[in-house]
Specification:
By secondary structure, the chain is α/β, with parallel strands linked by helices. It is built from 22 helices and 23 strands. Helix 15 packs parallel to helix 16. The longest helix has 23 residues.
């Protein structure tokens, strides 16, 4: 098996090398502005980015002197501006602003009855008008007057009498800045596609038109399969290039539907960048599910990309699609988005390169999850939660080196809830702190009992998701456990969902202090919900690679290549690398051959309660820990 080492940069580079990572096929370079304009028209915004296009903007003027208005309009007409509205009654200004929504407002400050300052103040309180750029017209030379207007939201000033050339330049610059700000606010920086904000706005309009005309349509969420693995193994640059390439293919596929059977009288299907690895498509009209299904099949085919790097296997990247249909699956944009997201999640769970339509069973499962979350609040008091220990072994030496603490909830119905599902439930029911505190107390109790019995203990991994519990709260719980007598060397804190933007410096310092006392820190679910970005934020001791890699290892050469890359990364940055979900001898052989440090999974033995774990795994102090045979049965030497 070949590693990625031959093409990975080894140090800073000022330019692109000939073997630098790229996933663009010939003719599939980054989308040009011209191509984006064709694929995702935003005509007013694009036009306003050019000087000529600014002439289409609507300019509004409020001034109590009609002569000033007439002279200004003459200046603007000569400069090429075509659209101008005005009022010499400042009491009508706000109503006119709401009706016209101009591209820029020219506002006199000194007016009877209602001053320009009062108009600015009222605009600032309005969620829409506060974004209209204002150029103040004033004959005052008092700096305080200008400061007050700036504080109220004015963008620029013109002194009366107005100079025509200066007026033209100020308006042009203000409109250009406003148009570019609007573009940035509505578009994704990486792909240039309309973003989530645009998606929500257009979704509301499409639903309104659909209700008025009695049309059906669909919300499609398109998720890239396994993008996290690509980012972890090959780097975020390659992942971003993949997203750009997939965006281009999706956009081309959507463009072919213009004026087709999925278009309404006023709108065509439109593509958006919805989230990190997710796109969305609004289908304004469809005559039955069959027409949408045919389009989705083309989306899946067209969005599949592959690339091959020197000395490495060919990598295939696919997408999955979740679909909600209106009005069948909801009449509200947020409901339809949520349902499309649920459908996408189920499609991915069923396997890559699939699509799923939302159905009532998805909603039933979501409601069932809410019921479970509510019941979890009582589970600890009713002794329904138990703590189990899963062995972790040194692959090369074949000895026990640690354990992972796992929570299991035995629901009265007979259902078992554990692992990531239980952690997510704890977060939604605000039980994360309580369960983490209980887990620490139980680990402390068991490790102290093991020592009392003269058994050789090992560090115990304790999972915590920073999506559900604040790091500051987690540090308080850990410090409380240490105060209660827990040895920090017995803890390996396994963090999930570390924010990419990092954690507060004070919390990071507190975490570092605990590491100096002997506590280990692991980045959990690496390659799934954790990536290199999170790895850089805190000082970790080890990586725990997501179980999905082991699940696909024996049938997917790409996964094998990625694991080699992850193992190489861990060695280069001097981190312990742990494979999770190891179930077979072939998986162990692959890991041992390629120099992996540690592993855990059913191959080495089931999770056991504290007493049975000690009886099966922990020898007396002074005797080595061994793992013998495929069943994971230990023996001491």
């Amino acid at each position: 098996m070949t590693t990625f080492e031959s093409t990975r940069p080894t140090g800073p580079r000022s330019g692109m090398d000939s073997d630098a990572p790229t996933v663009f096929a010939p003719g599939e370079e980054k989308l040009t502005e011209q191509a984006l304009r064709a694929l995702s028209p935003q005509e007013m915004i694009w036009r306003h980015r050019s000087v000529a296009g600014l002439a289409e903007a609507l300019i509004m003027m409020v001034d109590d002197e009609l002569l000033n208005i007439e002279m200004t309009q003459a200046f603007l007409t000569e400069a090429g501006y075509k659209h101008f509205v005005h009022t010499d009654d400042p009491q009508l200004a706000i109503a006119m602003l709401r009706k016209e929504h101009p591209g820029v407002l020219l506002l006199d400050l000194s007016m009877p009855k209602v001053s320009g300052h009062e108009i600015l103040a009222e605009m600032r309180e309005d969620p829409v008008l506060r974004h209209v750029p204002v150029i103040v017209l004033t004959s005052s030379t008092d700096p305080q007057v200008k400061l007050r207007a700036l504080a109220a939201g004015a963008m620029d000033f013109l002194s009366k009498p107005v100079d025509p050339s200066e007026l033209g330049l100020r308006i042009r610059n203000t409109l250009a800045a406003s148009a570019y700000r609007e573009y940035l606010g509505q578009h994704d920086a990486l792909t240039g596609l309309p973003n989530k904000l645009s998606y929500r706005k257009d979704a509301a309009m499409i639903l309104g038109e659909g209700r008025a005309e009695g049309n059906s349509g669909a919300f499609l969420h398109v998720g890239v399969d396994g993008l996290g693995r690509i980012n972890d193994a090959l780097g975020r640059v390659v992942g971003d290039q993949l997203l750009q390439r997939i965006a281009k293919r999706l956009a081309s596929c959507v463009q072919t539907e213009a004026n087709g059977e999925l278009s309404s009288e006023n709108r065509d299907p439109k593509l958006y960048r919805f989230d990190g690895d997710e796109f969305a498509i609004l289908v304004p009209y469809m005559d039955g599910v069959h027409s949408a299904a045919a389009f989705i099949t083309r989306l899946l085919e067209d969005s599949t990309v592959s690339f091959q790097r020197p000395g490495a296997p060919e990598v295939f990247v696919t997408c999955s699609v979740g679909v909600s249909v209106f009005p069948t699956d909801g009449g509200d944009a947020d409901v339809l988005m949520r349902n499309a997201g649920l459908a996408l999640r189920h499609a991915k769970q069923a396997g890559p390169h699939r699509y799923e339509f939302f159905s009532p069973r998805f909603n039933e499962q979501a409601l069932s999850r809410l019921d479970l979350a509510a019941e979890l609040r009582h589970a600890l008091a009713r002794d329904q939660v138990e703590l189990l220990f899963e062995p972790r072994v040194d692959i090369a030496a074949g000895r026990l080196v640690g354990a992972q603490a796992n929570l299991r909830w035995k629901h009265p119905s007979g259902r078992i809830v554990e692992g990531d599902e239980l952690m997510d439930l704890a977060g939604t029911s605000e039980m994360d702190v309580a369960l983490t505190e209980w887990m620490l107390e139980q680990v402390n109790k068991h490790t102290r009992n093991w020592k009392t019995l003269g058994l050789q203990t090992v560090p115990v991994g304790i999972k915590a998701s920073l999506a559900h519990i604040q790091l500051r709260d987690l540090m308080l719980l850990v410090n409380a456990a240490l105060t209660a007598g827990m040895d920090p060397r017995q803890i390996s804190l396994e963090l999930q969902r570390v924010p990419e933007e990092g954690v507060p410096a004070r919390d990071a310092t507190a975490l570092g202090a605990l590491r100096k006392r002997g506590m280990r820190l692991a980045l959990d679910r690496f390659g799934a919900s954790a990536s290199v970005a999170q790895l850089r934020r805190l000082g970790f001791d080890e990586l725990k690679v997501d179980t999905s890699f082991m699940r696909d290892l024996e049938k997917d050469p790409t996964v094998q290549a990625m694991l080699l890359g992850i193992g190489d990364l861990a060695r280069r940055v001097k981190l312990n690398c742990v494979a999770t979900g190891v179930d077979s001898a072939l998986q162990v052989a692959f890991l041992r051959k390629n120099g992996w440090d540690q592993a855990q999974g059913r191959f080495f033995g089931d999770s056991l309660d504290g007493n049975n774990f000690a009886a099966r795994w922990l020898p007396r102090v002074g005797k080595p820990m061994r793992v013998a045979g495929a069943d994971g049965a230990p023996h001491s030497g």
